[in-house]
Automatic annotation (TrEMBL):
It comes from Paractinoplanes rhizophilus. Transmembrane segments: none annotated. Gene3D superfamilies: FAD/NAD(P)-binding domain, protoporphyrinogen ix oxidase, domain 3, Protoporphyrinogen oxidase, mitochondrial, domain 2. This is Protoporphyrinogen/coproporphyrinogen oxidase. SUPFAM superfamilies: FAD-linked reductases, C-terminal domain, FAD/NAD(P)-binding domain. It comes from the Bacteria. PANTHER family: PROTOPORPHYRINOGEN OXIDASE (PTHR42923:SF3). It holds the Pfam family Amino_oxidase. Residues 16-480 form the Amine oxidase domain.
Length: 486
């Protein structure tokens, strides 16, 4: 048990990982514990942000989360939503298929794959053909403790076409990255585990699929009716934390009894066209400090590395190597009755060369939205633009990107889309982590070297997706709670 002396815990970062940490801390720590969430931006939630389009709530970030955990139970996100009283508001998508856009045609995504990787490539039909040799070489595909890029493994066993046409678009839909640069251990941990036992890729996929069989019959995805912002607000309220917005944490350092946070904006040089004298005499906000007993660091890799550098250059270096991809989301409210294919949406392989990499037919995929505006409501389409390594393709004004998205969407579905009645664009610069092989090992090293009372949480460390971030935040809260009790 934590002793009776009143403790103070800081959570740096107000995304869902930080908020999940704050809720878990509230559950674990004595009632008198002060929990402070420092978020340098103006709003909580990170990449969970609900907007409005055509009179409907439409996500400007993550639109759903996995219903089940790898072990067959409910995911950490579902458990948190229920803990927050949102169980009755959980909704699921309609049973409408999704497609791949290949060579100007929309082709249903083949069933029975794992992140686009089939157990039997011959079952893919004309979508893609195997050209590799998935033979038993008398040893497991992956050595114990080893990691490999997803694309490297699949190309070696099945050939390039399956990577290019299936694996790349499915991984790209989640990570905006390429299979040749993404860690198998992070993006497909069950498959990585099976690959350390099985001798062929087909056998490894089948083994990973059997492990997931306990989830059969359960909806794959879940959302919160009314929007993900409800999850954010409920977590903030349940944590009982003091929320500090717009006040960055500039530095963290150890004290005799805990940690000292240095707060306040970082001084920046004059911008282009301004001389140093032009900004001379302007008041600089005075730095503030806050002394706390423990810290949960739930921010992206680069700010985390900056804050860790004063504690350990080695830890900071292990964290800083993580790269990110920039993406943009486009929301279009099309006139009622706009015809769309009978799909929930589609994915586009990078080889097609389009800026659009994915599209969701929102009002078809989510029946609870369509029911709010029956008959005469708008047709909502959401498109995702941009891939890792191509930030220059997003460096245009909003009007240009909106029109480009509308034009490409029309070409991809085989008919020009009408001008939208309303639209928006949401940019996520450096928004999606690109987990290179060895990521898990680097994070494990960083965590082993951290001083007690300091924990890491969030997508920078434990994977994208709301359940991964929630579980990461909860684990960090448990770690600092144990440290304070020790």
């Amino acid at each position: 048990m934590v002793d009776d002396v009143r403790k103070r815990v800081a959570v740096i970062g107000g995304g869902i990982a930080g908020l999940a940490a704050a809720v878990r801390l509230r559950d674990l720590m004595p009632a008198a514990t002060d929990i402070i969430v420092y978020e340098q931006g103006g709003v909580l939630g990170g990449k969970l942000r609900t907007g409005e389009l055509g009179g409907l709530p439409v996500e400007r970030g993550a639109e759903s989360f996995l219903t089940s955990s790898p072990d067959g139970g409910e995911s950490a996100a579902v458990a948190l939503a229920k803990r927050l009283g949102l169980g009755p508001s959980l909704v699921h998508p309609a049973k409408v298929p999704a497609a791949l856009s290949i060579g100007g045609r929309l082709t249903p995504i083949p069933a029975g794959t794992l992140m686009g990787i089939p157990a039997d490539p011959s079952a893919l039909g004309e979508v893609a053909h195997a050209s590799g040799h998935d033979i038993d070489e008398g040893r497991p595909l992956l050595a114990e403790g080893a990691d490999v890029a997803v694309g490297t493994l699949v190309r070696a066993r099945y050939g390039a076409e399956i990577v290019d046409r299936l694996v790349d678009p499915l991984l790209g839909g989640v990570y905006a990255g390429r299979a040749d640069g993404l860690s198998l251990e992070v993006t497909a941990p069950q498959l990585a585990g099976a690959a350390r036992v099985e001798h062929t890729l087909g056998a490894a996929v089948r083994a990973a699929q059997r492990a997931r069989a306990t989830n059969a019959g359960r909806p794959v995805f879940t959302a919160v009716e009314g929007g993900m912002t409800r999850l954010v607000a409920a977590a903030a309220a349940a944590s009982g934390a003091r929320i500090s917005l717009g006040l960055p944490v500039r530095d963290i350092s150890r004290t005799a009894h805990g940690w000292r946070l240095l707060l306040g904006p970082v001084a920046t040089p004059p911008g282009p066209g301004f001389s140093a004298s032009a900004t001379a005499g302007r008041p600089v906000p005075a730095a503030q400090t806050d002394d706390v007993d423990a810290v949960v660091l739930a921010v992206p890799a680069r700010p985390a590395a900056r804050l860790l550098r004063g504690l350990s250059a080695e830890i900071a270096e292990a964290v800083a190597v993580l790269d990110y991809a920039s993406v943009a989301l486009v929301g279009l409210a099309l006139p009622p009755g706009t015809p769309l294919p009978e799909l929930s949406g589609f994915l586009v392989p990078p080889s097609e060369g389009t800026l659009v990499k994915a599209a969701t037919f929102v009002t078809r995929k989510w029946p609870h939205l369509a029911s709010r505006r029956p008959g005469s409501g708008p047709v909502i389409v959401r498109a995702s633009l941009g891939r890792a390594g191509e930030p220059e393709r997003l460096q245009f004004g909003d009007d240009v990107l909106l029109e480009r998205a509308r034009r490409e969407l029309g070409e991809l579905i085989g008919g020009e889309l009408p001008p939208p009645a309303a639209s928006w664009i949401q940019r996520w610069g450096g928004g999606l982590p690109q987990y290179a092989p060895g990521h898990r090992e680097r994070v494990a090293f960083a965590r082993r070297e951290l001083p007690p009372g300091l924990a890491l949480a969030g997508a920078a460390f434990d994977g994208v997706g709301i359940p991964a971030c929630v579980a990461s935040g909860e684990r960090a809260a448990e770690d600092v709670s144990k440290a304070l009790a020790g």
